[in-house]
Amino acid sequence: MPAEEDLSRLHCRLDELLEERGMTLTALAEKVGVSLVNLSVLKNDRAKAIRFSTLIALCDALACQPGELFTVDAHRTLG
Amino acid sequence: MIDKEPVVLTEPPLLRRSDRVVLRVLQILAWVGAAVTLVSGAASALLPLLQGMAAVPLTVEASLPETTGVIAQSPQWLQASVWIDGQQPVVTALVIAALLVRVAATAVVLMGIALLAGRMLRGRAFADAASAPLGLVLVGVAAGPILGDALEGWASMLAWEAMGTPSGFGSVMAFSPTAILFGLVVVAVMILFRVASRVQRDADGLV
Question: Domains in chain B: how many in total?
Fold first, then answer.
């Protein structure tokens, strides 16, 4: 299990996907039934976990696959 | 376009308005109760302190009325508060200490409840920090009454011995199992809070 600080390596590409589709976060929130606050948390990479139901709803609304929604940065090494 | 019913994923606020009102009332009542307990307890201890003597709890044998048809009866002992002539200062001190311990225990329980309500109102209902107020409640409900009983029993024993251990009188040796039971309940609540805190932490940041 990754340490809490390693979660910052996961990047949510919600911003990019919204831009590509010309959609606002508010419109997406209305479409998927997730609160704007929660979507903002996800967009700003502050979420620690995501429900499958949220993921499915987002993928449906953005017509994308889960893999397009997230990327994981390569391991950072010290020194 | 989503043809399914939208999934509502927003978490409702942990504390509803009615919860907050109840917690606020509980907090106020607990603080007021603690203040009243401390003031009345101090006043109760002041009189024996000024007089230099306090009523000592002793058990007294009571004779039951004789009626026809009763073949035998077991002796009945009642608890009474007795003022003893030439009471030793240590007995007075022990009685006052028992009173103060009980007053402090009640006040500590009430303060623990008030602090717990305050912490819950400030945010995370099941924060680890809740263990401190719950610890206060535990000390108040279990340790306070047990220590109070022990001090009172000690005073009673000394007073009875100073009286020359007269027959028909006995010392009080009270031990309240209720205090232990309440203590166990508080320990169970503490474990519940710890588990709930873990669950709450897991749910944090979940979208």
Answer: 1
Quote the ipTM score: 0.71
Which residue of B lies nearest to A38 if distances are taken between CA atoms?
A: B207
3-state secondary structure of B36: helix
**How far is residue B39's CA from residue B5's CA, in Å, rounded to a whole number?**
60
User: Which residues from chain A sit within 8 angstroms of residue B204, using beta carbons?
Assistant: 48
CB pairs under 8 A between A and B: 52
Identify the domain containing residue B188 by its residue range.
19-61+79-203
Which tens digit of pLDDT belongs to each residue from B52-94?
788 888 888 887 777 777 777 777 888 888 888 777 888 889 9
Q: Which residue of B has its CA nearest to A34?
A: B9
Place of tokens 């390569």: A74
User: What residues in B contact A33, CB-CB < 8 Å?
Assistant: 6-9
**pTM across the whole model:** 0.68
